[in-house]
Specification:
Elements: E1 23-25, E2 31-33, E3 73-76, E4 78-79, E5 85-91, E6 96-103, E7 109-112, H1 120-123, E8 137-147, E9 150-163, E10 166-178, H2 183-186, E11 191-194, H3 208-214, E12 222-227, E13 237-241, E14 249-257, E15 260-261, E16 264-268, E17 271-273, E18 276-277, E19 285-289, E20 296-298, H4 300-309, H5 318-336, H6 341-347, H7 359-367, H8 372-397, H9 402-414, E21 424-425, E22 436-440, E23 443-447, H10 449-452, E24 453-456, E25 463-466, E26 468-470, E27 480-483, H11 485-488, E28 491-496, E29 501-507
Parallel strand pairs: 6-11, 7-10, 19-27, 20-26
Antiparallel strand pairs: 1-2, 3-13, 4-5, 5-6, 5-9, 7-11, 8-9, 9-10, 12-13, 12-28, 14-29, 15-16, 16-19, 17-18, 17-22, 20-27, 21-25, 22-23, 24-25, 28-29
């Protein structure tokens, strides 16, 4: 959740319904929190996002530790229609309770402040009162976090933070004094607790889970997520600090090393639809495991192919059909003549340089609003051209005729995601939809239609939403995939900073 790499990601991060949480201590010495959840309706949606600068400022192996050890702690999670997971923490002495999203895609903790007077959102959520806490320590340094669909600002404070049964002392966090816009106005959660690395922490504040390790509250610098994707069950899931709960996964975990410290980023291989390669990641892609993003985000080129294969309906892109109509034959001729694919779009003057858009130009267009219109049009045509090249390559490999290729291209144009990123599917067609698979650590991780489609609302007006949304990140950081809750709900995920790795196993 929050600002991610590249263009704006309008992932369907759905609002969370809060209800009282009950703490209990089980026989294995772990603290568990009771969970409730409710169905989603169309009015209860919040969209996470990525800003155009590609800077995240805050939008699941059996390990050596014994899960029954007192040095391992479990946080139970609420599940809001398989869309977002959250739990309860407290700050101060005596404890002031807040419900937060546990977000591996950011690194700061923030909650509303009692000094938030001019944002309506603050009046709808509990507010931290420093004057009521005997362990509060003043900091006062200003802070701001910008999301794709909203922002918060305020200042740092220091106090004790209780997560489950663990008390983290002297934790820096942000008191939000402004929460403009509707994103947090409608939200049912109060704040966010980031579980990313300190490298992406606003103000370089030490993340909560760092302090858990530094203060000896857990034996291992490991935490793990289990998301309960059964919409009929009350239990939403568990977040375990210091180890894993073996009852929530099957078999062994597949581990991959963290390749870029900041996010939990790793290398990902091919993407397959119905067992057939999409070709785009044959040379490798990067991915992020992100508990704060509800859907699964990837390059528009592949997301469009996936949504076409599953029958998802997006908004017709006139730019896409224009490129196919005006430049399609030229692109096809160049591919058939064995021209370098990465040079084709620059050869026909739709891209400013070989291999993609001029990244510096894009950044300047964000900073310099005077250049935004002209650069934006050029960038869009370049992006569509790059997609067209990949689509045509895949069709040529199958020895399709030119007529069939152009027909397929226009159908893909029709499947481009809507401006808000979501695409709808027919709820009655799940049985005929293909499985979508991802290769991680030389192992294939498969998602069935029942696992990648979200149902919104109650019958008879239930709508089904594709779990795939578009996100374009240019090289060298991209192409990038965000494996959000759609993926993490299917695969129990371990975040191991001690060995700098991420692990996946089939959820139980």
């Amino acid at each position: 959740m929050g600002t991610r790499y590249g263009a704006s990601l309008a992932a369907l991060c759905l609002l969370l319904f809060l209800s009282p949480l009950v703490f209990s201590v089980s026989n294995d010495g772990l603290v568990r929190v009771g969970i409730k959840k409710r169905k989603l309706d169309q009015t209860n949606q919040v969209f996470g996002g990525i800003d155009s600068n590609g800077v995240h400022s805050a939008r699941k192996y059996r390990l050596g530790g014994n899960v029954g050890d007192s040095d391992t702690d479990i946080i139970a999670l609420k599940n809001y229609l398989d869309a977002q997971y959250f739990g309860e923490i407290s700050i101060g002495s005596p404890p002031q309770k807040f419900t937060v999203i546990f977000d591996t895609g950011s690194s700061n903790l923030w909650v509303p402040s009692a000094k938030c007077h001019f944002s309506l959102a603050c009046y709808l959520h509990p507010k931290y009162k420093s004057s009521h806490s005997s362990t509060y320590k003043k900091n006062g340094t200003s802070a701001a976090i910008h999301y794709g669909t909203g922002s918060i600002s305020g200042y740092f404070s220091n106090d004790n933070v209780k997560v489950g049964d663990l008390v983290v002392k002297d934790q820096d966090f942000i008191e939000a004094t402004r929460e403009p816009g509707i994103t947090f106005l409608a939200a049912k959660f109060d704040g966010i607790l980031g579980l990313g690395f300190q490298e992406i922490s606003v103000g370089k504040a030490v993340p909560v889970w760092y302090n858990m390790v530094n203060q000896g509250l857990v034996k291992q610098s490991v935490f793990s997520f289990w998301f309960n994707r059964n919409a009929e069950e009350e239990e939403g899931g568990e977040l375990v600090f210091g180890g894993v709960d073996p009852k929530h996964f099957k078999g062994e975990h597949t581990y991959v090393p963290v390749t870029h410290k900041g996010y939990w980023q790793f290398d990902m291989g091919d993407v397959l639809v119905g067992g057939e390669t999409t070709g785009f990641c044959s040379g490798g892609c990067s991915a992020i495991a992100d508990s704060g993003t509800s859907l699964l985000a990837g390059p528009t080129t592949i997301i469009t192919q996936i949504n076409h294969a599953i029958g998802a309906s997006g908004v017709v892109s006139q730019e896409c059909k224009s490129v196919v109509s005006e430049y399609g034959k030229t692109i096809l001729d160049l591919l058939e003549s064995k021209a370098a694919p990465q040079q084709i779009c620059s050869q026909i003057n739709l891209c400013s340089r070989d291999g993609g858009r001029d990244v510096s130009m894009i950044i300047e267009s964000v900073v310099d609003k005077h250049n935004e219109a002209s650069n934006g049009v050029h960038d869009e045509m370049c992006r569509v051209c790059e997609m067209a090249v990949v689509w045509m390559q895949n069709q040529l490999r199958r020895n399709e005729t030119a007529d069939r290729i152009f027909d397929y291209m226009n159908k893909l144009c029709d499947r481009l995601p809507s401006p808000m990123g979501e695409s709808a599917v027919n709820c009655n067609s799940l049985a005929s939809m293909p499985n979508v698979s991802f290769t991680v650590g030389n192992k294939t991780f498969e998602l069935t239609p029942q696992q990648y489609v979200l149902k919104v609302g109650e019958a008879p007006v239930t709508q089904c939403i594709s779990g795939f949304t578009a996100l374009d990140v240019p090289p060298p950081r991209g192409p990038l995939w965000i494996l959000g809750d759609v993926f993490m709900g299917r695969y129990h995920t371990v975040f191991d900073s001690e060995k700098m790795r991420v692990g996946f196993a089939e959820a139980a």
